[in-house]
Write a structure and sequence with these properties.
By secondary structure, chain A is α+β, with helices and mostly antiparallel strands. Chain A has four helices and six strands. Chain A has a four-stranded antiparallel beta sheet. Chain A has a two-stranded antiparallel ribbon with strand order 3-5. Chain A is elongated. The longest helix of chain B has 10 residues. The chains are: A alpha+beta, B alpha/beta. Strand 1 of chain A pairs parallel with strand 5 of chain B, so a sheet runs across the interface.
Chain lengths: ~140, ~100
């Protein structure tokens, strides 16, 4: 990971910018949305591996900062929604595409289905993924690239 | 299935809040099928998306909007060994890939 960041540093111009955008684990919220707003119906269950991956990524960025390769200029978090028409579509997607890193409890499924069933006809189901966006500037005095 | 990803366009808003891509040379690491690429590439001087997944890159190439044909290209590459000369890009984007 640090080697890849060194490669990026090499191909960036002096004063070049590195944008680090990535989802962070953390029991993403499940919500039923309708015209008036949304209702939280549960949280996904995090598996250990993505949490380790987040930690490794953060440590890599910390290391390149300590080495003086990049300087952190700005950092925020924003919600990135995955939205489906029905709870069953959400469950199917999570089982097929996200089964390596999150799970859904039976309780979360049940509460979500119930909330969706009594909501407006245009209601949907969504997962609120927490995304990090950070802007780093390439340092110019950290040795040869 | 009726999956919508980021229907509120938050990623696009934050990308533009954090960097001015206009007239810049961009390297996107982990571009996949190009979902993020299309959000900023239009005003750039040129964008190169790399990913080790050839199937994803094939989709990105097919999905590339016609007006980006001369601005965006894709390459199968590993971020550990970037096939570019030093000091080529103004901005590097780690697209959900660190």
């Amino acid at each position: 990971m640090v080697h890849a960041l060194d490669e990026i540093r090499r191909v960036l111009k002096p004063d070049g910018i590195l944008m680090d955008i990535r989802p962070l684990s953390g029991q993403w919220q499940i919500e039923v949305t309708s015209t008036p707003g949304f209702k939280e119906t549960g949280r996904v269950d995090d598996f250990p591996e993505p949490l380790k991956a987040d930690k490794a990524s953060n440590e890599a960025m910390q290391e390149v900062e300590e080495r003086g390769w990049f300087t952190r200029e700005q950092e925020e978090f924003f919600p990135f929604f995955y939205s489906w028409d029905t709870p069953s579509e959400m469950e199917e997607f999570i089982a097929e595409d996200w089964s390596d890193f999150i799970g859904l409890s039976e309780d979360a499924k049940k509460v979500t289905r119930s909330a969706w069933a009594i909501a407006d006809a245009d209601s949907r189901v969504r997962v609120r993924v927490k995304v990090l966006i950070a802007r780093w500037k390439k340092a110019t005095d950290a040795g040869p690239t | 299935m009726t999956l919508q990803k980021d229907p509120e366009g938050n990623e696009r808003k934050y990308l533009r809040k954090f960097a001015d891509f206009t007239g810049k040379r961009i390297l996107e690491v982990g571009c996949g099928e190009g979902r993020m690429t299309w959000q900023y590439a239009k005003g750039t001087l040129g964008t190169v998306g790399i990913d080790p997944d050839k199937d994803a890159l094939r989709i990105a190439t097919v999905d590339r909007p016609s007006d980006l044909g001369n601005k965006v290209c894709f390459a199968c590459a590993d971020s550990q060994y970037l096939p570019f000369s030093k000091e080529t890009f103004d901005i590097a984007v780690l697209a959900w890939s660190l």
